[in-house]
Amino acid sequence: MQKGTNRWALQKPTKNVWQMLGPSLLLVALAISGGELLLWPDLVSRYGFAFLWTVPLILILQFAVNMEIERYTAVTGETTLGGLVGLSKWFRLLFPISIVVSLVWPAWASPAGNMLAHTFGVPGQGALFGMGIMLMLILIWNSKNSYKILETVARYGLLVVLGIILWVIGTNWDPQIMSEAANGFTSIGYFPPETDKFVLLSALAYGGVVGVLNLAQSDWTKAKGYAAAGREDPSLVNWELEETQSSWKNWWSLMLKEHFVVYYIGNFVGIILLSILAFVTIRGLDVKNFAILTAQFDQLREQTPILGIAFGLGITLLFTMAQMTILDAQGRLLKTSLQSKISNEKISQFVGVIGLIILLMTYINPDFNQPAFLLRLSASLSAGVMVMYAPFLLVLNNKLPEKTRPKLWNKLLVIGCAVFYGIIIVWSLL
């Protein structure tokens, strides 16, 4: 504590970057279960590696936005969404609507149900399986241990899927793959004339995670106790002290490294591996949308039945975990934006019921049961939400103590993110 005052100097971090891993992991899991598992392979199956040049770009733009979300919480100890809502009374209306509209669709329970149904040989019952999964997730908040159990199972599912990916790539390796991939990375600005704009927009949005889901990272940063968020009363930190400023530089450096290692590199590797998997398994096949996953399942099952089944169950677990995580994030975000006294668990359950009703509608009307469409719809709406709130992150963080405010490069990347996705949205609608 500073002499003569009741304010504290910020303590230096006592953990290294590996011990700080956490807030980025869930975003990577969501990305793999969405854009990287279905949407990017969809692009590769249609256009080869033509769009790989966008991967480093979208990840660095999203990286910058995510760090501004972490920055506010690490300095103030408050959630970033709470700070944004405090900027304008209109945000108290816009954010709840944005959260519900962009995430209410059971865009992960649907492919989970369809994959499970296909694995068990009853592909026409995907909506019914999806309803069962959603019902399980609604009930799971009644048990504090169920989330940990499902999370553990999902992690093993991820290991199974990644193991299968590496095995398939290794046994089907062709030197042409490197040449094709290199062309994709160097063809900057190239868009095939027949590009499906909706698919591209969705892949760009969920290659990483875009939208209000990013804001949930603020809660995880707070729970992890980064910088001032780890103090009992963050408002008592004296940001004018040299000791505090030195400690902040150390914290910020570790936060950057943690997010870069897990989020940027993790998503980059995930997109590349799953794109190569699609290239070596369904190249030349006329498959689109969710049929990409079922085609991969069928091919693996023909090679070795156990691998096909493991692939199907692993994908089901990944999508299920993603849907549960999103329901949890919705509960937290809606509670903050609505300033509700209702627990976030109860809010998550209520939103889950809405998703269950949507799945029931798809069961009644099979023509609407298109999991890839639901995922794309959620991704596109999320991109619109990102365009809306990203610039206001800078407004919010420019009110922080001077030494903790974003630098010029941070500001340019955040603005660039909003502009990029704004342009892509307009282009996709033309």
Succession of helices and strands: HHHHHHHHHHHHHHHH
Uncertain segments: none
- What value does the average pLDDT take? 82
The CATH architecture is Up-down Bundle
C-alpha termini separation:
59 Å
Sheet of most strands: none
Report on the structure:
The N and C termini lie far apart (59 Å). This protein is globular. The chain contains 16 helices and no strands. 72% of the residues lie in helices and 0% in strands. It has one domain: Amino acid/polyamine transporter I (Up-down Bundle), CATH 1.20.1740.10. The protein has helices spanning 23-47, 54-76, 80-87, 91-103, 109-119, 126-140, 146-171, 176-186, 197-206, 217-224, 242-282, 291-303, 305-338, 344-364, 371-397, 408-429. It is mostly helical and 430 residues long.
Keywords:
single chain, mainly alpha, Amino acid/polyamine transporter I
Q: Care to give the gist of this entry?
A:
The protein is mainly α and 430 residues long. The chain has helices at residues 23-47, 54-76, 80-87, 91-103, 109-119, 126-140, 146-171, 176-186, 197-206, 217-224, 242-282, 291-303, 305-338, 344-364, 371-397, 408-429. Helix 1 (23-47) packs antiparallel against helix 10 (217-224) and helix 2 crosses helix 15 (371-397).
Helices and strands in order, then pairings?
Blueprint: H1 23-47, H2 54-76, H3 80-87, H4 91-103, H5 109-119, H6 126-140, H7 146-171, H8 176-186, H9 197-206, H10 217-224, H11 242-282, H12 291-303, H13 305-338, H14 344-364, H15 371-397, H16 408-429
